RNA sequence: CGGGAUGUGGCGCAGUUUGGUAGCGCGUCCGCUUUGGGAGCGGAAGGUCGUCGGUUCAAAUCCGGCCAUCCCGACCA
């Protein structure tokens, strides 16, 4: 077979680009750093949205929409926030053919506008907690864009909440972290993530505490798949989000924000892809089973049988596609299905039909098995379930075999050349972190020894994950 | 933003050293034969050679500016 993609081992970034192009996921936009998400790629994002949206709503948050344009003065109200974001802001200075009195910023994130309206809507402790989410695009001017992983404009979900107490805000930030994000990544994306706490250096601009979920990519780097922040009272103070407490006292609210983005599509490619293209976990896949007419006879019997099979699968709750383009050579279509990572292909030709069979092909392990038509539905369900687990196990195995336990900063930097390093945080510290950064390595997050998320970076016995990252 | 590399039909490239008016593979379109892992034969369409300027009788080719992409770094969610 002709080589379709650059092999991963030969040139990983090139392979990543190839997958995106050949699987028709995205194109570069005309403006540097922008991307066009093509239907195949967008379908993945829509599935992510659907799964995430359900989880977010299950925690009690409601969707709303805030404007793209933000008065520049809003950004300035929170000192750390503006300092963190000003280098990557897109600023509109003209509108309607005239210079604007006050420049308008294209949102890099919406803490500020939402803070302004929270202040308006929150009067009493009875108005809390206020749990909002929005699906939107944001713009952060990027110096070094990479499709899906880091683009100047991207799509995401940003949640913003206000609470009466610090404990409540913290509990909610953590609830999103685990119940929405971790659950989604593990059970839908089949990507194992290390859930931890960012160091002060890596914290979100304006947050008092940033939680993160880190995935290992196929080249041993780290990719931040999502974040949840405790914002303390920083934004409440800046935007006067206050309320009358039960005792009649005026109090400042405690806010949080949290987000996941189209970067997860990049994570999906980099965690599960192989030399033949994308491998989409069944729980996510827009098309779980692709029914393929290999070739047909004069009466079109194979095509009708394929449609019937597709209907049966659909009725059984399988997301199914049908490829009956028999005028296109089969090999081409098979390669295309592999590139796009459909978990299962059901290949059917006249010979199979005569035998009452269909060939079940699994993307994850490449197996091809002829199975009786009247048993397909059950076998498809079983294969989807097994392959969902297999992808997770493979990714976990990979991460474990590429994670080193080390004791010194030097060893950590060395280990980061090929994977991740776990090192006692006490052996790193602020100075060690700077030394790692100088060598292109960052502390991705801190976790407790039992894997749980610490409340403070000063807790004794913490473990730091160090790695190169995207 | 710094260093390096690259920009030539939709995609991948040759041609640039030594200036002479653009070629190959894939894809696309038409026809026939094909179709169980990127089909074969025949025919056709498609390019102001990234862009702007300079040198020259003549520029894809030489010189300069700009833009874009990729790699490495810096910056940063």
General description of the model:
With 470 residues, this protein is of the alpha+beta class. The protein folds into 3 domains: 12-272, Bira Bifunctional Protein, Domain 2 (BirA Bifunctional Protein, domain 2); 289-383, 3-Layer(aba) Sandwich (Rossmann fold); 410-467, no CATH class. The chain has 14 helices and 23 strands. It has a 7-stranded mixed sheet, with helices on both faces. A hairpin with a 6-residue loop joins strand 1 (26-28) and strand 2. Helix 2 (39-58) packs across helix 6. The protein is globular, with a radius of gyration of 25 Å. The protein starts with 11 loop residues before the first helix and ends with a strand. The model has no long low-confidence stretch (mean pLDDT 93). The protein binds one RNA strand of 77 nucleotides through residues 1-2, 4, 11, 13-14, 17, 21, 28, 32, 84-85, 87-88, 108-109, 140, 142-144, 150, 202, 204-205, 210, 224, 227, 259, 261, 263, 294-296, 326-336, 338, 347, 349-352, 359, 440.
Beta-strand share of residues: 25-35%
Give helix % range.
25-40%
Structural class: alpha+beta
Count the domains. Answer: 3
Name the CATH architecture of the largest domain.
2-Layer Sandwich
- As a whole number of angstroms, the C-alpha radius of gyration is 25 Å
Lateral strand order in the biggest sheet: 3-7-8-14-11-10-9
Mind telling me the CATH class of the largest domain?
Answer: Alpha Beta
Tally of helical runs: 14
CATH-defined fold name of the largest domain: BirA Bifunctional Protein, domain 2
For the sheet with most strands, the description reads: 7 strands, mixed
User: Separation of termini?
Assistant: 32 Å
* Overall form: globular
Are there runs of 5+ residues with pLDDT below 50, and where? Answer: none
Mean pLDDT: 93
Output the CATH homologous superfamily of the largest domain.
Bira Bifunctional Protein, Domain 2
Number of DSSP strands?
Answer: 23
């Amino acid at each position: 077979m002709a080589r379709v993609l650059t092999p991963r081992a030969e040139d990983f970034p090139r392979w990543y680009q190839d997958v995106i192009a050949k699987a028709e996921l995205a194109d570069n936009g005309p403006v540097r750093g922008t991307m066009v998400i093509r239907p195949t790629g967008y379908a993945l994002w829509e599935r992510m949205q659907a799964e995430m949206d359900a989880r977010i709503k299950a925690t009690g948050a409601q969707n709303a929409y805030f404007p793209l344009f933000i008065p520049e003065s809003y950004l300035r109200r929170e000192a750390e926030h503006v300092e963190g974001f000003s280098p990557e802001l897109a600023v509109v200075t003209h509108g309607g053919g005239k210079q604007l009195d006050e420049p308008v910023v294209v949102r890099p994130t919406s803490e500020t506008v939402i803070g302004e309206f929270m202040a308006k809507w929150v009067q009493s402790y009875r108005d809390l907690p206020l749990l909002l989410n929005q699906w939107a695009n944001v713009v952060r001017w990027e110096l070094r864009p990479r499709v899906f992983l880091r683009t100047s404009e991207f799509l995401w979900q940003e949640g913003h909440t206000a609470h009466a107490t610090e404990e409540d805000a913290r509990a909610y930030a953590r609830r999103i972290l685990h119940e929405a994000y971790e659950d989604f990544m593990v059970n839908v994306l089949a990507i194992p993530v290390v859930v931890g706490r960012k160091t002060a250096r890596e914290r979100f601009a304006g947050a008092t505490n940033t939680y993160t979920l880190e995935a290992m990519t196929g080249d041993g780097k780290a990719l931040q798949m999502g974040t949840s922040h405790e914002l303390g009272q920083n934004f409440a103070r800046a935007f006067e989000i206050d309320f009358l407490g039960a005792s009649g006292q005026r109090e400042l609210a405690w806010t949080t924000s949290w987000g996941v983005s189209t970067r997860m599509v990049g994570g999906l490619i980099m965690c599960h892809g192989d030399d033949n293209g994308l491998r989409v976990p069944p729980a996510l896949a827009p098309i779980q089973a692709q029914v393929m007419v290999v070739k047909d006879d004069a009466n079109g019997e194979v095509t009708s049988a394929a449609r019937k099979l597709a209907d049966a699968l659909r009725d059984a709750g399988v997301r199914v596609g049908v490829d009956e383009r028999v005028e296109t050579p089969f090999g081409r279509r098979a390669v295309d299905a592999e590139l796009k990572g459909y978990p299962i292909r059901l290949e059917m030709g006249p010979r199979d039909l005569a035998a009452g069979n269909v060939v079940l092909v699994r993307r994850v392990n490449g197996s091809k098995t002829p199975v009786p038509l009247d048993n397909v539905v059950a076998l498809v369900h079983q294969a989807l379930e097994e392959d969902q687990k297999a992808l997770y196990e493979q990714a976990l195995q990979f991460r474990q075999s590429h994670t080193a336990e080390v004791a010194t900063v030097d060893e950590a930097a060395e280990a980061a050349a090929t994977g991740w390093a776990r090192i006692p945080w006490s052996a790193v510290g602020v100075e060690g972190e700077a030394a790692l950064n100088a060598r292109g390595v960052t502390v991705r997050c801190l976790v407790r020894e039992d894997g749980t998320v610490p409340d403070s970076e000063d807790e004794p016995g913490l473990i730091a994950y160090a790695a190169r990252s995207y």
